[in-house]
Amino acid sequence: FSSNNMSLLGLRPISTGRLLKTPNKRICLTRMSATLSRQDELKKQAAWKAVEYVKSGMVVGLGTGSTAYFAVERIGQLLKDGELKDIIGVPTSVRTYEHAKSVNIPLATLDEQPSIDVAIDGADEVDPNLDVVKGRGGALLREKMVEKASKLFVCIVDDSKLVDGLGGSKLAMPIEIVQFCHQYTIRRIAALPQVAGCTHKLRMEGDKPYVTDNGNYIIDLYFETPMADSKAASEAILALEGVVDHGLFLDMVGVCIIAGKEGVEVRTRK
């Protein structure tokens, strides 16, 4: 994974152990607390189950976020123990790149590995059809690129992420937009009938707009009730100039692993 490839992905060197800020969370690249919360323990269970889909010789998409963290840790440990060999990871963000590097996972880009065997990543919402909302951590574009290039996308969540319909959590559904005339783009998104009734906020980091790894802004949509037609909303949003992509990951998840108080459940797309 050369310095040239880092530049192509917009990757910036970050010292190991640095705490990286995302809009609502702080993720340590080197270690998490030895005492896990119940939710983190569920995330770990789901992640470890997902890593069972990884076999020696595979190219693996490495997701971003607090649940994907445990999958990256697990793959690194299995490589160290010799239980996995010849793995190549394709990271979906700067922070995942740094984390994977710190646990000695060999890395590549989509330019070098355009076909991925399996991708493992978390989600912010999962509906009964295994359609998901992702991107509250800000990495939605690279996540979607890597997961679209994967033969199998394994989604890992705890049971708090289950919803009856996308938007049902009343939390953010992100849209990545270019910085140029961003207020114009935001107004056009807000006026779409397919997202009528939602509220919107430009994501901030301190007193400045949050900037993605790709140099773009994010607008977060908040729904009081689930979207009536997430496919129609997806198409309408993507049709607007100035929109890069959105956090609706439709018809992409092949397997969803859900950890809850009753144990780990594996659901497959029908």
SSE string, helices as H and strands as E: HEEHEHEHEEEHEEHEEEEHEEEE
- Give Rg in angstroms: 18 Å
Class derived from helix and strand content: alpha/beta
**Average pLDDT number:** 91
Strand order of the largest sheet: 4-3-5-8-16-17
Strand segment tally: 17
Unreliable spans: 12-30
| Largest sheet features | 6 strands, mixed
Structure summarized in a few sentences:
Helices cover 27% and strands 27% of the residues. It has seven helices and 17 strands.
Describe this structure in words.
By secondary structure, the chain is an alpha/beta fold. Helix content is 27%, strand content 27%. The strands form five sheets. Strands 4-3-5-8-16-17 form a six-stranded mixed beta sheet, with helices on both faces. Strand 11 and strand 12 form a beta hairpin. It is globular. The protein starts with a helix and ends with a strand. About 7% of the residues have low confidence.
